[in-house]
Amino acid sequence: MTKVSPISVAFGKAVKQARLKKAWTQDDLANESGLDRSYISQIEGGLRNPSLPVVWDLAVKLDTSFLTLMAAAVQLMPEASSESNKPSE
């Protein structure tokens, strides 16, 4: 079973929040971004790790900035004090 990264889950939640703020469905975001709806679903579920250009494009389509989207993801992260959330070396 694949381990899901906390930052991937947090980023997915941030994308979903931004999408819902625009009152868009996953299909709407997929159509606007040129990505498949199932890929959007996997991102929102924390199952996929999109590349930086994809993150940038999602931010633009969601009428936000790359930094704002990433900051929202950081705010949604579980407690930073948890050992499991520290980056591996």
TrEMBL record:
<keyword id="KW-0238">DNA-binding</keyword>
<feature type="domain" description="HTH cro/C1-type">
    <location>
        <begin position="15"/>
        <end position="69"/>
    </location>
</feature>
<dbReference type="InterPro" id="IPR050807">
    <property type="entry name" value="TransReg_Diox_bact_type"/>
</dbReference>
<dbReference type="InterPro" id="IPR001387">
    <property type="entry name" value="Cro/C1-type_HTH"/>
</dbReference>
<dbReference type="GO" id="GO:0003700">
    <property type="term" value="F:DNA-binding transcription factor activity"/>
</dbReference>
<dbReference type="GO" id="GO:0005829">
    <property type="term" value="C:cytosol"/>
</dbReference>
<dbReference type="InterPro" id="IPR010982">
    <property type="entry name" value="Lambda_DNA-bd_dom_sf"/>
</dbReference>
<dbReference type="Pfam" id="PF01381">
    <property type="entry name" value="HTH_3"/>
</dbReference>
<protein>
    <submittedName>
        <fullName>Helix-turn-helix</fullName>
    </submittedName>
</protein>
<dbReference type="GO" id="GO:0003677">
    <property type="term" value="F:DNA binding"/>
</dbReference>
